[in-house]
Amino acid sequence: MSASGGTKAIVAALGANLAIAVAKFVAFLFSGSSSMLAESVHSVADSGNQALLLVGGKKAQREATPQHPFGYGRERYIYAFLVSIVLFSVGGMFALYEGYEKIKHPHELEHWYWPVGVLVFAIIAEGFSFRTAIKESNTLRGGRSWTEFVRRAKAPELPVVLLEDLGALVGLVLALGGVGLALLTGDSVWDGIGTLCIGVLLILIALVLAAETKSLLLGESAGAEETQKIATALVDGDTVTRVIHMRTLHLGPEELLVAAKIAVRHEETATEIATAINAAEARIREAVPIARVIYLEPDIYSEAEAAKGPDPEATPGGPTPHAADH
């Protein structure tokens, strides 16, 4: 996995979650707190999720094959999507079930100092993990807001770890609140309510992750800044006079496909056009190094044709011929 994949953040989160999961299970066994059980399963699910991200990063490094000529870069998106499924099913749904059972069949907390102590330890450990994820993300985020970074990032690992760590911290506070209220009021129903809140939180985070990784799996274009750099690099003002149309597609977080129809002068020879295309490809790769696959189609620009507007039937995903008849 490349450095931008956030390997450091994933490993930090994995180590923290494994330690926290063990501590939470011990606290649950001594106290019988449903919040602690839900948080234990949450930490186990998070640990499995980080393992999935590492596996996805490793598989994405495989060389292209005749069957998969564009490589395996999207493996990282697939495994990130699996993370959202695990978080929803193992983490969120289990917490909802456990919270319901605790409210329906409440029982007094035992050895309350175990869950309180473990939750405080877990908040500190998750805080360090979250700090690492923020530090790693800041090197890529630039001037973008955190919401925009999560929505627009092409590498899924850092947004996943950020949302998981944020969810873990909020979940720990909810668990601590549930246990604390149960101790103060003597009513363990509050422990179940805290568990339900944890379940709802995990499901919401899982849905956000699923929506973002689904968009990546479907195929996202390059960002506006990269698109502008490519368009600028294509035109040399000599042989290549303009970009007629262009499309980009992320084959993986660090692999970009560029397909463009470019206008060339009608008096140029085939050799001159081929030389200009090779030069344009070199300029694109220099301007945007992740542009790995480039297809350029030379054409003669026509103002009359351009005035007609784009042909919807020539656009991927556009209407098929005679669509109105169906």
Major β-sheet annotation: 3 strands, mixed
**Beta-strand share of residues:** 5-15%
DSSP E strands, number: 3
Which regions have little confidence, pLDDT < 50, spanning 5+ residues?
1-5, 318-326
How many helical elements? 10
Estimate the global geometry from the Cα principal axes. elongated
Q: Main sheet: which strands, in order across?
A: 1-2-3
Cα radius of gyration in angstroms = 26 Å
- DSSP helix fraction: 55-70%
Judged by helices, strands and strand pairing, the structural class is: mainly alpha
Average pLDDT value? 83
What's the N-to-C terminus distance? 47 Å
Order of helices and strands: HHHHHHHHEEHEH
What would you say this structure looks like, in words?
The chain is mainly alpha-helical. 64% of the residues lie in helices and 10% in strands. The chain contains ten helices and three strands. Strands 1-2-3 form a three-stranded mixed beta sheet. β1 and β2 form a beta hairpin. It is elongated, with a radius of gyration of 26 Å. The protein starts with 6 loop residues before the first helix and ends in a 19-residue tail after the last helix. The N terminus and C terminus are likely disordered.
